[in-house]
Amino acid sequence: MPDDTHYQGRVAIITGAASGIGKALAGALARRGATVVLADIDEAGAKAAADALAAGPPGRVSGVALDVTDAEAVASLVERVAQDHGHLDFLFNNAGIAVAGPVSELTLAHWNRTIDVNLRGVVHGVVAAYPIMIRQGRGHIVNTASLAGLLPSPMLTAYGMTKHGVVSLSESLRMEAAEHGVRVSVVCPGVIDTPLLDKGNPPDLPPVTHAPNARALLTKMIGRAYPAASLAEDVLDGVARNRPIIVTPRHARIPWRIYRISPRLMIESGPRVMRRAVRSAGG
Ligand SMILES: NC(=O)c1ccc[n+]([C@@H]2O[C@H](COP(=O)([O-])OP(=O)(O)OC[C@H]3O[C@@H](n4cnc5c(N)ncnc54)[C@H](O)[C@@H]3O)[C@@H](O)[C@H]2O)c1
User: Fold this and answer.
1) So where are the chain's domains?
2) Residues 100, 156: contact at Cβ < 8 Å?
3) In principle, which of 69, 73, 79, 283 could form an S-S bond with 278, CB 3.0–4.6 Å?
4) What atom of ligand 1 comes closest to residue 163's alpha carbon?
């Protein structure tokens, strides 16, 4: 049975930790006595989130600037943290963006941005941390994918494609990493109540005229939004138990099961279900 001591005195880096899931994970880890580095492209947000958590022993929580699309920056942060603390126990590759809209309206810029942040960002983390963890003979890489990484995701096609990539990377790496004592898990959240659901596409990308409201669409298709703090507890429990795939909340496992039993059923009924959901989500 895992217990809170699993994280006591451990060193963790979390990307995308200024907001939402990353911030909730940071809080849950800090409460369990871990040293946590909150890394985010939003430096002020990462520092503010770290300050808010810094009620514990000084120096345990810090916020730093990091753009996960910058491989060198990721490598240098990971090396620095491992060197400063003598080890790196957890890397949570969590930073991500949502890009929605029909494929007919996505430009190459939409595809590239989604791939750069959601997929290359995770690859950069793995390339930086895995050799260090192999040398240590231990460590746990935890990648945030999505339920969209397990199911077809119309209107979120580029996003779902990158998240399928993260699931595949994580599963294959887990099988290789085991012989080095390194663990790998992938988190596949359903709909989580974070700012991501209301942000819309990155504002510097060309506007998409038929982009549905993500919160309304996903809630309609998958179920009500789950609190990020509850997700963080589920994730830390799943990581301590070394679960390969952590799908949460529980009701998000239903569509995943249906898809595994009958992909055809979901793919064939999908367009009708989606049209209805998009209409009611105002897309
Ligand atoms: N919220 C959901 O319903 C949901 C569902 C499934 C998966 N996810 C995934 O969970 C992860 C976290 O999402 P969230 O819901 O907390 O979103 P969020 O928008 O609240 O937080 C994402 C964070 O990532 C940061 N970020 C974006 N681009 C970055 C970059 N290039 N480098 C570093 N940081 C960057 C943002 O500044 C932000 O702080 C993402 O990978 C997302 O795809 C979220």
Assistant:
1) 4-281
2) yes
3) 283
4) 43
